[in-house]
Amino acid sequence: MYEILDKINNPEDVRKLDYNKLKKLAEEIRAEIINVVSKTGGHLSSNLGSVELTLALHRSFNTPEDKLLWDVGHQIYPHKLITGRRELFHTIRQYKGISGFPNRDESKYDVLNTGHASTALSAALGMVVARDQKGEKHHIVAVVGDGSLTGGVALEALNQIGHHKRRIIIVLNDNKMSISPNVGAISKYLDYLQSGQFYVKTKEKIRTVVELIPAVGKKMVELAHEVEDKLKKLMVPGSFFEELGIRYVGPINGHDVKEMEEVFEKVKKCTRPVLVHVVTEKGKGYKPAEEKANWFHSSAPFDIKTGKFKKKNGAPSYSAVFSETLIELAKKDDKIIAITAAMPEGTGLIKFKETFPERYFDVGIAEQHGVEFAVGLALGGLKPVIALYSTFLQRAYDQIIHDVSLMDLPIVIGIDRAGAVSGDGPTHQGIYDIAYLNIVPNFIMMAPKDERELQNMLYAALKSEHPVTIRYPRAQGFGVPLKNEFEEIPIGKWEYLKEGKDGIIFAVGNRVYPAMEAALELKEEGIEIGVMNCRFIKPMDEEVLEKVAKKYKWILTVEDGVLKGGFGTSVDLYFREKKNFKIKIYSLGYPEEILPQGDTKTIHKLYGIDKHGIIKKVKEIKSRKRKLADFLKPS
Ligand SMILES: Cc1ncc(C[n+]2csc(CCOP(=O)(O)OP(=O)(O)O)c2C)c(N)n1
Questions:
Q1: Does pLDDT of 633 surpass 80?
Q2: Which residue from 31, 83, 364, 634 lies 20 to 30 Å from 327 (Cα-Cα)?
C-alpha cells in the first residue's frame, strides 16, 4: 500500500501534486520497482535512475497528446506506474503479463515499441515530419541514454535532425553508463560536458540562453537565433551538438524535478531541434544497485536486504564457459582478440578483459561496427572472436554478407541468448539466427548440446579458415565436467547418440538433451526412437543423412528457432533434391508469428519443443503412420 502511488491513475494526477508530494511519490515508485523486480527480475538500475525524469516529463508535457519516445525502453517502469499500469505492474516480464518495454498495444502513452537501442531519434524525426505535414502542434520528445546515443542509428538520426532543423526535443539521459561504464570518444565528450567545473561555469549562461528563446513571433525567433548563434560557442565550446545544428541545453540535474520542469518549459518554446542534457545516477536509491549498477542493469531476482541474486544451480552459464574457454585458448595464441558490443557482463567477456586487457575491445552499442572491426582484424591476420546476442546480431547482417561471407574471413561469432529468451519478450527473442544465417555462403554454423561441447566447438572454430558461428542459449550448463584440454570436433560431423527403429529425432543445440530424455521415456513405453546430435547446422553431415535415409522411415527435426528457413527446412530440402529417398520429414520449431513474452520453459512448452512436446509429436507421427497403414490394408 502506497499513500500517493495508489492514487495515481494517469499523468494528470501527477501534475496536481506539489513538490513535497512528488518527492514522496518518487520514493514510492522506487520502493515498488525494487519490490517487484526483486521477484520477477528486470532492468533495475536504469529505472531507479529515471524516476524524477519521468515525473518531470509527464508534468511538463501534455502526454499523451505530446509524444514521448523512450529509446531502448528498458527505463520505463516509472512511466508504466503512472500511466495506468500500477495494478498490473507485478506481472511485468511474465507470461501474459505487461511488457518490460514500451508496448503500443498496452497503452496510449506508449508511442514506439522498443527493445533494441538507438532507434528513438529516427522514429521521433519521422513523427515530427508527419506532425508538421498535418499542421499539428504537439511536442515530440525522444529520451535517449548516453550509451544508446553512441549507436550508429542514433548518430545517423542526429545527422538528419540537425539538417532539417525542425522542432523536436531530445532528452539525453546521461548516467555515464551503458550497461557497464560507457565507452568511446562520445562518452568522454559527455563526461567533459558534465564535469563539475564546466557545470558550475556554464549553468548560469545556460539559463540566460534558455531565457532568450522567444515564445512567439517570427522576428523574435530570428532575433533569438542570432543571439543564440553568438552565444553558442561561448556556452559550449566546440559543442558537437551545436555544430550539428541542435541547440544544446545542460547539463541539468535529472533528480531535481523542479529544475527539469523549468528547463522543459523553456525549451518547449524553441522552434529548432534542442537537446537537453540531463544527468542521472543509475541505480539511485538502492545502495546495491548504486554500487553495482551494471549487475543490476538486467537483474535476476534478488534478496532486497542483502542485494544478493537468487541463483538457480551451480553449473556455469554458457556465456561463462565461452569466455573462460576463450581465455584458455588465448593463452596459447596471442592472435586471438575478443570483442563485445556493450555487453561485457552478459557475454562473460569481462573476464577476458581482466586477463588480456590489450586484446579485448568493447565497441559500444555498435554491432555493425563490431563485426566490421572484426573484418579488419581478420584482414590484418588476427583471430577475432565477437560475442553478440542473437537478437542484436541482426543489426550486423549486411556486414555478415557483404564482408565476412563474400571475403570468406575466419571470424568466430559467439551467438549468445540464441533461442527463446526469458522475460524480455518479442524484441529480444533469439529465434531468427539459424534462418538468416542458413542462407549465407561460407558460414559454418555450430550449436553445442552442452557446455563441454561448447568448449570443443570454440576450439574447432578457431582452427577453421572460414567464418564460424556458435549459437548457445542464455542458460546454465548441465554440470558436465569441463577441461582445459580440448578435442577438435571434425567440421560437419554429427553425433549419433541413440539408434532407433522406424524414426529418428534430429536435435539441434539445446534441444538435444530434451530429445534424449524424450527418447528414453518412449523406450520405457516400448517405442524405440533414434537421436542425432546435429551439432553442425551447416554444413550438414551428408554421410549420416544418406545412412539415416536408408534405415528410417521418418525424421523429426527439433530446434529452438523459427521453422521457415531453419534447420528442419535444410534437411527437408536435402531430401527433396534427392528424389530416390522416400523418408518423411517432420519439424518442431516456431511458426511465423510473434512469440509471446514469458520464461523459456513456458515458451518451449507452448510450442511443443520440450521433452513432452517431442514425445507428443513422436506419438502423433506413429499413430498417423498406423492409421495410414490400416487404411491401405486390403480389406
Ligand atoms: C542494439 C542493441 N544492442 C545492445 C542492447 C543491450 N542494451 C540494453 S540497454 C543497454 C545500455 C543502454 O545504455 P543507456 O542508453 O545509456 O541507458 P541506461 O541503461 O544507462 O539508462 C544495452 C547495451 C540493446 N538493447 N540493443
A1: no
A2: 364
